[in-house]
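Lecture 7 notes. Example A: sequence first, then its structure tokens.
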Amino acid sequence: MKKPLVGACFAVLLLGATAAPAAAVGDERPAQPKARAVGFAGTVALSNCSGSVVRVPDSKPGDPALVLSNGHCLESGFPAPGEVVLNKPSTRSFTLLNASGGNAGKVRASKVAYGTMTDTDISLYQLTSTYSDIESRYGIKALELNAARPEQGRAITVASGYWKKLYKCNVDGFAYRLKEGSWTWKDSVRYTPACQTIGGTSGSPVIDDATGKVVAVNNTGNENGERCTDNNPCEVDENGKVTVRKGINYAQQTYWIVPCVGAGNKIDLNRAGCQLPKPSGVK
């Protein structure tokens, strides 16, 4: 994992990506959608990681806002394999950034609405502020989670609120399973080699440059070529073949969060289409 910078048990990985080559003259491939200017507005800095204020398409202005980061960025430490954190009280604070990366102000959590490192690596904090509170006070709108799976080849930006740095690359492809130490993640996004992220970028939103929507959350990369160890994830295909890509980095898709968020931004793991892991003993 891209380790949190403070109080981490072990180091977090760097992610990478390269811009897709320009099409040659006469190339008949459809042109990429025109890129938007992606900045820092809506991103946040945690004490040890990055994150972003996010909404789903059906979120309302009066709903309590959500902050997205990694499960391994939780203040309680890394969730064990199979562990799911649900509606746990939290008073964690976040530094909210404006478009240029300046500090707009502070927002605070009321609880960890959801967190896990099983199948994916995400945390969702519910804030004490609503979306309308944040917009009226700071002029900042939440980033929207794309309800569709990201596409290979798309230009993306990894926006780190911790470092106030933008990493630009493309979606290189997808890992059927990504295994790192005790954890296994499904259908992970693999970057091209240009997004050379560093510790502290964990939890950064991965933004589609064409739509401005969040398609993934930055979380790990293979640091020194080891096979499936901590800080050295490996890809495992449908037939069990293992591939190690030294220096290549990954993110976890976020479209499958969308069906799990109900009215009032409440996490409802029983909603139709929700595939997020449930806590043990919860049906």
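Example B, a different protein, same format:
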Amino acid sequence: MRLIVNDRPLELEVDIRTSLLDLLREHAGLPGTKKGCNQGACGACTVLVDGERILSCLALAVQYEGRAITTVEGLASPDGLHPLQAAFVEHDGFQCGYCTPGQICSAIGMKREIEQGVPSHVTGDLAGETVEPSPEEIRERMSGNLCRCGAHNGIVAAITEYFGTEDLGEPA
């Protein structure tokens, strides 16, 4: 199987039933993507495929042959952390850190969705060409990524900085 992982070609021989999550962690040596629930409910395994966020625990690796996969390890550059990674550090957007890679990949994918005008469940104007990254939009779109240790405020602050929006505040 041939994949492009973090801008590098990767060729592996694995069982066709191998999940993308297991391929990344066990065969490609990239432990940043976490196995949480292994049922698609927690978001810890979120990675980017061609820039779109997916739950790698629910995806068979063979489905993504020849596609560009980005994990949390592939976000930083030789010059430093990705801006969202730096914002997570600055705003203490992690405590145990288990959900952090999935949160970061999901937020990057979410930003792309918003920039493309993809509506969510809470988008007010479905006919509009743009979507504002409002507090409601961001919370709705990040609702599939769970933080169990209480770093939610730091996560929200980091994403707010990354989007360059005003303080999102707390949910009503």
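Note on Example B: Residues 4 and 104 are 20 Å apart (CA to CA). The helical segments are 20-27, 83-90, 100-115, 135-141, 152-163.
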